[in-house]
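tl;dr need the bound structure. longer version: we got a ligand (acetyl coenzyme *A) that a collaborator sent over and nobodys looked at where it sits. i said id run it. heres the input, straight from their email, havent touched it
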Amino acid sequence: MRDFFPGLAGVVATKSNISSVDGQQGILEYRGIRIEELAAHGTFMETAYLLLFDELPTSSALRQFEEDLLIHRRIKYRITDLIKCLPESGHPMDAIQAAVAALGMFYPATNVRDPEARYWAAIRLLAKLPTMVAAFARLRHGDDQIQPNDNLSYSENFFYMLFEQKPDPAIAKMFDTSLILHAEHTMNASTFSGLVTASTLADPYTVISSAIGTLKGPLHGGANEAVIHMLRAIGSVEQVASFLDQKIEAKEKVMGFGHRVYKVKDPRALILQELAQHMDKDQKPNSLLTIARAVEQEMEQRVGHKGIRPNVDFYSGIIYHQMGIETDMFTPIFAMSRVAGWLAHCFEQYQHNHLFRPDQIYEGPHNRPYESIESRKPSTSAI
Ligand code: ACO
């Protein structure tokens, strides 16, 4: 009997220099630098550069990188038209997945061995994703798309394209910090799905669109949206204990808790919680943050002994909610940031490529006869 690891838990799928997690001690490093350091001193632009090029940028390298990103923020009117054609009730993750796949048709980067082609694909994806996310957020409500503002930083510009006004510098800084914290996280589900696609030597746009599809699920990036729905459903601090008892009794997952790797509180959740507290100074009795903190306390008593603690998605949605961003835009914002890590892994895979093709244990029958249509019985299998 061959070994079988459901969900590939604990299986080493690749060697990488990009990031590392110590799930027992709650340490996350990008290229060897602790995320606390990056969050305190860095910007998302520097972080994206670090992930792609293995070093923090010099000031001239950063200037060039930011300039290249700045001139590629705009999207073709045909991409805008594509976004306009999508149903407004559809999920924004589906919209950006479609738009990213379409980008690859406008800017073919099929020669993945060419460093120039890889660089410009990375620049276009990083630069245009925020524009596409903001475009869908506005167009679906019948509002005009707002063109990027070249005088604003990456994070300020995203707010400007969403709300038609420049954000308060403190808000822009907090948003930028949250992008730093979401930019990379070793061999998670969406990165692995991107890696499998990259291993076929598909172009970076195709790689990123498959990673976006994987990030959407509620067990992965979609949890940040699900957390807000859950906190709203709980409604008040008094309801927390009975809500959790029912969930745990029914063996249902509490969104924003648990992690395949972390057995302590996710270090990103610690920083995001601080940011959320900073934004909710009044600590209103039943604010989402107040309810969230009560959920964390009650969860600790119930499942803390199993190492189930808040993950990155637990407090991130609260911050975006406090910033006035619509709930279903949270996971697309996660994708805007994680594209940096996905690209770094994609390029690493191209350099040492080996096609992913795992095995399976077949459990079905063999040598079944081909029955005539008259003698067949209706299928009883569910799909
Ligand atoms: N709420 C309640 N119980 C939980 C939770 C949770 N969120 N997570 C795990 N458990 C329990 C399980 O019921 C199980 O209990 P048992 O051993 O008594 O049966 C045990 O912990 C192990 O659970 P698994 O699902 O096997 O753990 P796994 O490592 O596969 O799950 C996962 C990790 C998928 C993240 C899970 O914790 C979960 O579904 N969490 C909720 C969704 C979520 O927040 N996802 C975001 C993760 S971070 C990210 O992707 C960006």
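gonna send this back to them w/ a short note. Residues 115-139 form the longest helix (25 residues).
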